[in-house]
Each structure stands twice: as structure tokens, then as C-alpha cells.
Amino acid sequence: MSGLKIHLFFVFLCHLFCTKAQILIKEKESDQNIPFVELRDSGGRILGMSDENGVILQEVIDKITKIDVSEISFNHISYQTIKLQKQQFLNSKYITLSRNTIVLDEVIVSPTKVNYSFLLVRGYYRTYNIIDTQPKSYADGIVEYLYPNNSKDGILIRRLQERSYLLSTGKAIPTLMNINIVGPRVPDMNLTNENPTKTYNFFDNQNKDYFLLAKHDILKIRKIPLKNGEYAILQEIAYLSPEEKKIIKRFGNEALHEYHNESSVYKTNDSTDISLINLLYHKEIRKFKMKGKNDERFQDVEDIGEFFVEKVEYLQEKPKGFSRFSGFNGVSNYDYKFWEDITNNKLYKPLPDAILNSLNNSLVELKNISR
What we know:
Elements: H1 3-18, E1 23-27, E2 38-40, E3 46-49, E4 55-56, H2 58-66, E5 71-76, E6 79-85, H3 86-90, E7 94-97, E8 108-110, E9 118-131, E10 134-148, E11 156-167, E12 210-214, E13 217-225, E14 231-238, E15 247-250, E16 253-266, E17 279-291, E18 299-315, H4 353-360, E19 363-365
Parallel strand pairs: 1-7, 8-18
Antiparallel strand pairs: 1-4, 2-3, 2-5, 5-6, 9-10, 9-18, 10-11, 11-19, 12-13, 13-14, 14-16, 15-16, 16-17, 17-18
């Protein structure tokens, strides 16, 4: 065998054995790939996500192969959740999800926007975090976000009803990393058409999907079918690309950011009408490893937050009682069971079983100051 043939033979072997294995997540109805699907274990922890092309990469597959997990669930706002046994997942080349049949709720919008100074968005939020395998804190409530018409002013928050839960024992997260672990999630005006200085521009391709690469951010916008034959817009963005997953050191603490994703649903079928007025739902996921300066190992930290819009209102005058604080309040403050009303929302999905169990057992509700 000539030297050239031997070289080509080894190149072929290297390609054969070094090519990264992948598993695709596809839509049953269209056979299209589904981006940003969450893979979770029975404890509610995120094991990984499909990328912007609907691919589960080798690093996620390797992680699941090594850890002790028996069942994996596949979660996405637009699709029905399914569960697979670990070995069934590892033996798969692709996984199919079926669309949810969605009927959207009406959001009250009043009055008209002529010469308005502020946009008020009211709704229900819930958020929790998991450290290693243990849920550590949870909060939910009815909040209002105040968006100024002047882009120079910041977004303000007013909390109307709120519950706060905290694990009674356990090590706290280092505060010097300046991360609000649990608190209301503020939808980003930069990703809507309200912000005249936004850096995001959308363009249409033949599949009526919209993509953007801004620095290393990956934004995808696509239409999701509704039960009545109409469409809504689903906007998804990944702020971290694989090359950005690096260790950040600050004040002796270290953090390795793995995922930072946001998704929003808008009641419109036109990407040029992506607006807070049409916002129905917003979700943010952050997953990272953290180690304090006196810690011997990294802790796995997950932070999940959701917001369900109930009302949007144009205002001429700035109302009172708002602040910039969006973190964990540390108290409960409510006078009725507001969390029961949200279960009627069409985009609402129950919390993972492990989080619900923690709310009933290991997590302790902090003092309700309204009583």
C-alpha cells in the first residue's frame, strides 16, 4: 500500500472514530429540528439542552452517560413533554416531540398608546434555584414592571403579592458574584421593537424563521401554530456559545457559565410586531458552576424564572411604590392564594415534581408580613 493510501486510510479512521455523535430532536408533524429543548432528570435538574439547530451535542451525551440517572424528560413550551429511560435515550439517533395544542389567553390592554410616558406590564412570576441536587429557594408572586418610554431610564418593579421559600439548612451561595439567584424575571426590552436603539435585526429566510448572530448570541424566532389556525411568535435566544463557556474569577470566587437562555411567546404572527404589548410569556434559564474562595469544589447552580402576562397598560404619570430591586425579597407578603389563579393560564405547566415536593417538605415559607 502506497504512503498516500496509508495516509488517507488513517484520515478515514480518524474521521470515523473522532466524529462527535449527535442526537437530533425533531418535530413529529414537520420533521424539522427543535432548538433549545431542555433535558431534565427526575429531580428537575437541567442535564443539557439541544442547540440552536436542534442537536444534542456529544458533551451532553457524555455527561448523561456518566451520571446516575434513570429517566430523562424533554421539555419545551411549544411541545408535549415526554420521558425516556436513559439507555433508550443513548440508543436513539433522533427523538420526536409532538406539538402542543395551544389556545392563548387574552391580555387586557388599556388605554391607547398616544403620548404615553410609561408602559406597565402586570403578571405572575415564579422562580427557583437548585444547587447540586437540592432545591434551595423558591419565590412567586404578582408583580408589575414599569417600562419608561425614554430608553435612558431604567425598568422598575412593584411587588403586589409574593411568597418566598428557603431551605432551612445548607450553605449559602457566595454573594460577591453579584447574581440574583431568585427573583422576578424582567422581560428584555432590547429584544422587542419598543427599543429604538436595539442592536437586533431580524431577517426572513425561506422557512419563515428568523436568525441573528450578534457577537456570540444566537437568536431564533419562529411561528408556532395555535388551535384556531392562527400563529404566535416564539422568540428564543442563547447568550452563551460553546466557546464562551469559560471560568470567570472575581473576588476569589469562580464561576463557569454553561447556559443562559431566554424564550418569549408573543400574540402576533408578524416578527415586526414583537412588542411588550403582545408579550404573553417569558422564561429565563441560567446554569453555571460556582466555587467560593474557601470552597474545595464547584457547586452546580441552576436558576429558572418564568413570567405570565395578565395586563398591559399605558400610563401618563409615574405611579408610586416601584423600585429597581429584582432579587430575592426574603419575606412573604400576600393576602390571598394568588398562585391558584395562574393554573388556568393556557401556557402554564406544573413545576417539576421534585420542586413541588420541596415546597411541601424541605423548603420553608418565610414570614408573611401581611398577616
